[in-house]
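new request in #modeling-help
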Amino acid sequence: MAVRKPPITTREYWAPGHAACAGCGCATSLKLATKAFSEAMEEKYGDPNAFAIAHATGCMEVVSAVFPYTAWKAPWIHVAFENAAAVASGVEAAWKKIGRKGKILAIGGDGGTADIGLQALSGMLERWHNVVYLMYDNEAYMNTGIQRSSSTPYGAWTTTSPPGKYSIGEDKPKKWVALIAAAHQIPYVATASVANPFDFVRKMKKAAKVDGPAFVQVQCTCVPGWRAPPEKSIEITRLAIETGVWPLFEIENGDFFNIKIQPPGGGAKVKREGGRVVAIEFKKPIEEYLKLQGRFKHLFKRPEAIDELREQIKAMWKTLGVDVTLPKPEE
Amino acid sequence: MEYKPIRKVVSGNYAAAYAALHSRVQVVAAYPITPQTSIIEKIAEFIANGETDIQYVPVESEHSAMAACIGASATGARAFTATSAQGLALMHEMLHWASGARLPIVMVDVNRAMAPPWSVWDDQTDSLAQRDTGWMQFYAENNQEVYDGVIMAFKVAETVNLPAMVIESAFILSHTYDVVEMIPQELVDEFLPPRKPLYDLADFEREPFSVGSLATPADYYEFRYKIQKAMEEAKKVIKEVGREFGERFGRDYSQMIETYRTDDADFVFMGMGSLMGTVKQAVDILRQEGYKVGAAKVRWFRPFPKEELYELAKNVDGIAVLDRNYSFGMEGILFTEAKGALYNTDAKPLMKNYIVGLGGRDFTVNDVRKIAENMNAVIEKGELDVEVDWYHLKR
């Protein structure tokens, strides 16, 4: 009997026994990312283990390595919060010096990447280290107990952006680090989602195979931080794509005029010109995404804030060169 | 191979760069800051000229410099960096990391005053503020000691698996040219063989490991104890390495406190770094004038040579501790350390603290003479006039 080849390697680098929450989207992202990395290394260098990981402080760091145990089946180093990119730079330099072939994977959350680690990230990208930086974006400082980061979306409740009489919650638009990374004109930048594992794995493999730096920003649910039911973790991130909240795109060599946009699904109509996506008409309102999460609950009493979020999402798509229409829910 | 030194006229900074080159460092990650910059400029020049294939990572901050050194050192490479003052302060978090991860990184710190007010001149407070980071600290008196210090520091660091700082004075050494006897590469290689790392992020022969894990209260305590044990071990290793260096190359570093004409001294001047060169010269003059004085140069501040200090202190009436540094709310930092080290012993010399040369204030042979006159009077009277003397203060 013929055995069908599994769609992705069965090798595991992120072992069971880690202490992540049930429904943690970030844990899923790391499991997939390391599998993709391993496949890429096998295809490129004939060695599935030809990588090491430099990890910023954060949820995934804390849950994966509690001495004397570890969930990592690849060489792994954690050095503080703000410098996964700098540590990866040093590891890569040493690999180069000793002539070991392979690639380094740097991992950081949105706080460790968009805020405190942004300088080190920029330095690593600009110096052209052979490193893939994976930003797992759960859109707030979840490890310290849900504080806003610059990657927290407009309107979200966090403990440092609480809604109240004088506050609608987080009052700044989300900062898109992928676009900042792309401005370094590095070979490869992509956004991804744990709700679309095949797209994510393809992008991670591509990132791992390019010569030079690459950056992947993956959206992943934080069950306690988003006030979301664990069983809806993937559904929520899928709705983020389908409603236009989370764009899936790729930018090669900083070529902003040729951004590759992945179709969002969910019935959205995609308009292309010369192969380029120029407009998307979304069919699902962002309310479908927001309503599953307690962090946006208060917005439903403030419809003008949801409209403001819609405007910000349109503006973000405009930066990607795409005119979008975002429906309001039917009355 | 017989040892024939190669004599070069170099600045303290170039001495540091040559020492790094001769130590066959593999990764250098550094960021420019006055007065350190010419160290990394020289290393960049070595690479550009094809004299070495060091991987040079021109990082975007000192914090990332040490982070990259940590990454490289954890991969088994011999890693080196250099900095000064504000740069060292920015690295502070990473210094704890390097020692906690037991990585034998060597760094040259060019002592420079902390701002404000802004200053680029000599002052030891930057390095002494890193006292509790788990780094060994070697203070060089002259350019030769900068060169020798870096090579020895790698050997000591790689033996005990702790990082080491080699410290030189801003401008007084960093930019002042002097003859330095350099060691032919083959002989450095014999003295300092390739590093054998505790663990290695590029080693796939062993089960992959994780470094930098979380340790609960059930484990953290023992990690700290092991660092202290390594520091104690380092005292032995420093003496052995210093002796071996002397046997091979003629300059003995087996004393952690270098004593100069202390045998029959009534009192001694104690201090660290380049100012001790001035003190030794002054001691010769003062001896001719009838003062029975000596000099005690603390080479290694961490680990602190308590035992050697006791051997010195039990035979003198007084110690004038010269601090080119200050701990606000207390006194000179070496003074505190020296007093503390002697407290539970039977050595009770009169100890007085002279705060000298802060922010590069000139410190001359004549200043040593004035301090000797004051110290002599204090000892004759048998009591201190003041415990901490802001010697240079404009009155």
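bot summary: Residues 220-249 of chain B form the longest helix (30 residues).
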